Amino acid sequence: TINIPTDAQEILSTLEADGRQAYVVGGCVRDSLIGRTPGDWDITTSALPMQVKQLFRRTVDTGIKHGTVTVMMGDTGYEVTTYRIDGNYADGRHPDSVEFSANLRDDLKRRDFTINAMAYNNSDGLVDEFNGIGDLQAGIVRCVGDARERFTEDALRMMRAIRFSAQLGFIIDEDTYSAIGAMADTISKVSMERIHDELGKILMSDHPDYVKRLCDTRLTQYVLPVMDSILTDRRCNSTLTLLMHAGNSPYLRYAALYNAADADNANAELKALKLDNNTINTVTKIVRLSKTSIDETEPAVREAIHMYGRDFLPLLMRHQTSVIAAKEETTGIMMTAARKHVEVINRLYEEIIKRGDCISIKDLDISGSDLMELGMSGPRIGETLNSMLHIVMENPKLNDKETLIAMLGTLE
Ligand code: ATP
Ligand code: MG
User: Fold this and answer.
1) Is residue 230 part of a domain?
2) Domain residues for 316?
3) Which atom of ligand 1 is nearest to the CA of 117?
4) Is any atom of ligand 1 closer than 6 Å to the C-beta of 375?
5) Residues 97 and 31 in one domain
6) Could you read off the pLDDT of 101-145 as tens digits, one per residue?
7) What's the CATH number where 62 sits?
8) Each residue of 336-369: b (16+ CB within 10 Å) or e?
9) Tens digit of pLDDT for each residue in 37-92?
10) Cβ–ligand 1 contact at 39 (below 6 Å)
11) Which among 118, 138, 158 is the end of a domain?
12) What ipTM describes this predicted complex?
């Protein structure tokens, strides 16, 4: 049996008391059956959206045209969707037209994969029309119905198949897999935002190396040429190994993926993927500085923190650790010195941050207005503060107003 949370159960009971059918459906059923914690609990019902709205006090019309009403229970929203039959998905996201239905089977039939097409409630138990349970137990991602037809309706499903395989560690059914290969070119109809959503989920999964499937099915060939070339040539194995050692953040996973690329090419592809600017810039910077070695001295680490940013340096060190671990795995040779170097930099970083050493102009014991009072004006002020900062990062003892004023004459 599936343990439905109280709020979701209350929604089911309210709909049933009104004479409607209602089930939890899709991802939450799949995840519950394999002992994963569901992200959200979606509900499918024979009730029409207007009827759902009348039954609950607080609702939001999130996708009312497509039959979805969000029912608010406390702070949590539950998507309640009317049984439906979908028309084409020209935008790869929402079907152009939907038809409501009175049959649960119709609703299950429109869903992408057998493991996502199961419904459950306490009165009927599991409703599984397409042997989702068998595929779930065997670890198979398989389309509901004819794979080519399903990918023709919605090309994003090709990425979703690989995404679920990576999240669950599943294989992809042969027909489903060969249909992806046959229809890979149609992925170019899907928006880059939807593509990066799925790619991000693959990279953040327990099996980030399954990105190889994107390339084996030729999906990357049409939309992600840089990634495609990395994963089809000699850089492939080291990239996949690196991905398996990457830290648990999107920055680090993307940086591992593009580590073997030229930083400018990586940057262009991250932009094409329409990732947010922060991710684009951080990942590009990690790739660019991947091989940078910082001197094992406090001044050098302070300079690095100042130059690259306080939050960035730990990311870069984590990335370099992954690179070392991946190389060790590939070559079978322990890189003790390289590991020790990163450890030293990390330790110096911790000490500098803990002490609150001066690493930026605002940490100086003197300010722009102090310099103005001394009669300085224009760009000289910024230049002077900058020179002082570098002197203080070299020797923190000098960060004292009088000392800094005393050195004014000696500065350029
Ligand atoms: P996640 O844990 O990522 O939320 P999920 O299975 O809940 O996984 P969603 O994208 O939230 O996936 O979709 C919820 C359900 O809606 C799916 O389980 C599936 O039944 C159906 N679904 C979602 N997108 C599609 C699609 N493009 N084509 C067909 N069915 C879909
Ligand atoms: Mg979901």
Assistant:
1) no
2) 235-357
3) 20
4) no
5) yes
6) 999 999 999 999 999 999 999 999 999 999 999 999 999 999 999
7) 3.30.460.10
8) eebeebbeebbebbeebeeeebbbebeebbbeee
9) 999 999 999 999 999 999 999 999 999 989 999 999 999 999 999 999 987 777 65
10) yes
11) 138
12) 0.98
